[in-house]
Predict the structure of Beta-fructofuranosidase, cell wall isozyme-like.
Amino acid sequence: DATDQPYRTGYHFQPRRNWMNDPNGPMYYNGVYHLFYQYNPYGAVWGNIVWAHSVSYDLINWVNLEDAIYPTGPFDVNGCWSGSVTLLPGDKPAIFYAGIDLKNRQVQNIALPKNTSDPLLREWVKSPHNPLITPPNETDPNFFRDPTTAWQGEDMAWRLLVGSQIKGQGTAILYKSIDFIRWRMIGSLFNSMAETDMWECPDFYPVSTRSRNSLETSDQGELTKHVLKASFNHHDYYVLGNYKTKTDRFSVENDFTLSSSGLRYDYGKYYASKTFYDSAKKRRILWGWINESDSKAFDNKKGWSGLQSIPRSVLLTETGKQLVQWPIKEMEKLRAKEVTTLSKDLKGGSVVEVSGITAAQADVKVSFKITDIAKAETIDHNSVDPQLLCSSKTASVRGKLGPFGLLALASEDLKEQTAIYFHVLKKHGKFVVLMCSDQSRSSLTGGLDKTNYGGFVDMDPRHEKISLRSSIDHSIVESFGGEGKTCITARVYPSLAVGNRARLYVFNNGTVGVKISRLSAWSMRNAQIAPISKRRKPK
Ligand code: DQQ
């Protein structure tokens, strides 16, 4: 009931109760989308980890099935951690996952469908060869997990990566196999100069440099780049580079950059993500785990913890320098009532309500036109970390060209608000667009993590409109700046701006006016997530 559970979402994927973390082995198979995820069947905190399993025809509405993978043998008795699906020739899905074995070592195991003619693939059988990959001597057995989807080279051999840490440095180890059973270690795929924690949940896939087509994981056309994503230090970082299976060498264009001026999928809360190739719609889809920013005690009280992001399609930008992400088209089926404003001046110092929609469960798109760019404030210090800039230039600090944007999940008196906004600044003679998500006033409740997030949007505000899409869903706001070039996700727990008391505003707290070219906002319907049909009895 919504009054008891004001923070449960309407159109994000979440189980009915308990803890959820990483998305695992997403796939499209025989007309059905599958999502597995790290799940604690017995509580709202991390522990007792199994692979829960849900299926969907449209990636929006889901049916929860029985847990697919849970501890059964010495190779996974202490937990079934993250992993991926590979579609083997003859269209046979194989799950590769990290098992925590009897000695608490991390080992890599396989599970196969019991019966591939079951359209829902409800039962999975562990391979008699488990464990297939055990930690090599040079790695700590506590840092060896999260196998990727495997890809096939020109030599027909399979490759996959396992996340790891060697001598205190995060890395991904490449393995090769002819038969998908015996795996040989090749070595680190790439040695980063960035000093990081262990690389969790690596993901490695090709993107086309030419078209808006997506590529299957083994695709090796000429016009491709490869994306390597790794999760560490609380974020999902990626690099782009060239990779060919002939040499298995990955030559990168950039290195992981720890500051928020580097490439990240999302500059807010977003972790342990994974992509898959959707052969039905020929696109690559990204799922990410959005964790809570409240306390464990609060999670126990509400009985659940963790969301999945809206599935996003991923492509390379036209410049080829970064990725763009966009909520999958199917999301728009949930749009109900729409309100639209065209060509409107937004004077400096104004706050205008967007009324007529359900502001706690909405989708909003707005684009701003800058008419007086000469007024942009200059920032000339050398190292500008956008996230730090956003924590000093909050939504309530008066600027010049900015802050302007949206106040989501706001109370009528504006005491509570999650502000997603832009600043146009001049840095070393060039115009830059800063995007921020300011949680500092998101709730009157104490004990919450209200860190502000930020990133730059790679665009030219002299010629392009500055666009923002925010998908608002009770306790989550996923924002896409510059048509998906810069994404920021926030988790918030307002105390006043709850349910039909929540409001949405467009604001400009700069001294200079900007123009709203177009603003459209929609009420969003609920996605259907049907209850579990049958679950194993608690231990
Ligand atoms: N979560 C899993 C691990 C992974 C981590 C355990 C990332 O396999 O490294 O639940 O959130």
User: Anything to note?
Assistant: The longest strand covers residues 18-29. The chain has two helices and 37 strands. The helical segments are 296-302, 386-392.
